[in-house]
Each structure stands twice: as structure tokens, then as C-alpha cells.
Design a protein that fits this description.
The chain has helices at residues 16-21, 72-75, and strands at residues 8-12, 24-32, 38-43, 53-56, 63-71, 80-87, 90-98. The chain is mostly beta strands. The chain is elongated. It has a four-stranded antiparallel beta sheet with strand order 1-2-5-4. A three-stranded antiparallel beta sheet has the order 3-6-7, with no helix packed on it.
Length: 101
């Protein structure tokens, strides 16, 4: 039963064209879990700065959506972006995307 509680994570990053044409970009993380997990973000393995806007949408019973918005010029300097889900009922789970153009 413990294994089935581990959430699955979908991480969507903005397209290259979006990064080149918009001043701000948004990455979306959807955590599929029966638990109300805490969703956090890591940029190049570090916590985002205060300039980074994180918006955790209302969670349904099956998934939690979190959006990370940051300036395009900051996005262009990143190597990796990580979405992490934590809850006491499962081991911390994360998904990392390599975003280096």
C-alpha cells in the first residue's frame, strides 16, 4: 500500500519560442496524489528567489497544480528546474527537467 501512495508528477516547461518572445514565462507542475502534498520548486537545485512567483492552485482530491512564473531572462540562465512534492505519508518525490537551451 505504501508504494501506491507515491505521487506521480507532470512538469511542463515553456516552449523555446515563448521564452524568446515573452517577458515572463510559466512552468506548471501537476502532482497526482491522494494526499494534500506540499509542492515546492527548485531552480538549479536551489530555492527560488523572492522575485519568483509561485501560485499553488486549489487542489482537487487527486491532483495539485502549482505554477512558477519568472522573468524570461532569468529562465534563460537556468540549467534545471525541479518540482518537488512532500507529505508525511510518502517519501519526498521530485521531477527535474533540463531546460538549458
Amino acid at each position: 500500500a505504501f508504494l501506491s501512495s507515491t505521487p506521480s508528477i507532470d512538469l511542463e516547461t515553456p516552449r523555446f519560442r515563448t521564452v524568446m518572445t515573452q517577458t515572463e514565462v510559466t512552468a506548471t507542475c501537476v502532482v497526482h496524489s491522494a494526499y494534500d502534498a506540499k509542492v515546492s520548486w527548485l531552480l538549479d537545485g536551489k530555492d527560488p528567489t523572492s522575485r519568483t512567483q509561485v501560485n499553488q492552485a486549489s487542489s482537487t482530491t487527486q491532483s495539485i497544480s502549482s505554477n512558477l512564473t519568472l522573468p524570461s531572462n532569468q529562465w534563460k540562465t537556468l540549467n534545471t528546474i525541479t518540482c518537488r512534492a512532500e507529505h508525511r505519508c510518502f517519501n519526498p518525490t521530485e521531477k527535474t527537467s533540463n531546460v538549458k537551451g
